[in-house]
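Appendix B, Record 12. Input sequence as logged:
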Amino acid sequence: MKKFFVIAITLLLATGATAQEVASPKASPLPSPKGEGVPLAVAAPSPFGEGRGGALIHPWAGRRVAYLGDSITDPRVKAAKKKYWEWLQEWLGITPWVYAISGRQWNDIPRQARQLHEEHGDSVDAILIFVGTNDFNDSVPIGEWFTFDEQETWAARGQAKTLQTRRHRTPIMTDDTYRGRINKALSTLKALYPTKQIVLLTPIHRGYFGPNDKNVQPTEDFANKCGEFVDAYVESVKQAGNIWAVPVIDWNASCGLYPLLDEHKQYFANPATDQLHPNDKGHVRMALTLLYQLLTLPCVF
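Logged structural output:
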């Protein structure tokens, strides 16, 4: 496959900068974690019009990124020769630290996060979490985000502060429900990495998976044993972004993979037995989606 040039953007945030100064960025390549001589920026057509070109820098170029999740990310699963994060490594010079393990669910994310912290401390730049399809298949109940009670709190508006009784909510931290698992995971990550970028990726669409008689997973048009469709698990990840103040990239919608149609099975490992794990073509499509979506997010603060 022809190697893609690195597409990037430099945002100038200088106080009092003129329109011309913003339209004509002068960017310097980010230092490469692999040492000198590895270009992370190339001359590219300017997004501001002809004659205003320059080196465009992707904000994630040259960074150290951790990947938490399940088999679609796990390097030991050979459905694809090159995973989405390996394409980002090639295009952007990202150093990937991959902790994803096949079959894992949201309740394993705190363990993966702690292992990352033990091995790399605070040196990671950002963390991507892509998990949830196994929770759906294992029929983990969706559950609720909060418990509610009545508590007293100090409040004032135009008068002396007084103790007032108001409705109060507390995040549910449990491994027994999907939302409880997400709460536990993001509480752990936000505490371990308060200054780091954390990004959630929604589960992608899933087709039939049946490698053997003891592991048969129907297509997503069937509900799980809880009576829930996969949509509820995808939607919960999107809701978690607002609850925990973390950005969400909706891969379920944006990467375009839809194995329920025969025409889309070309993106998956085996048209007959594995429409769950993307193949090389599928991972390229996922990676390209991330390449552009990550342009909208800072990697470091």
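The two ends are 34 Å apart (CA to CA).
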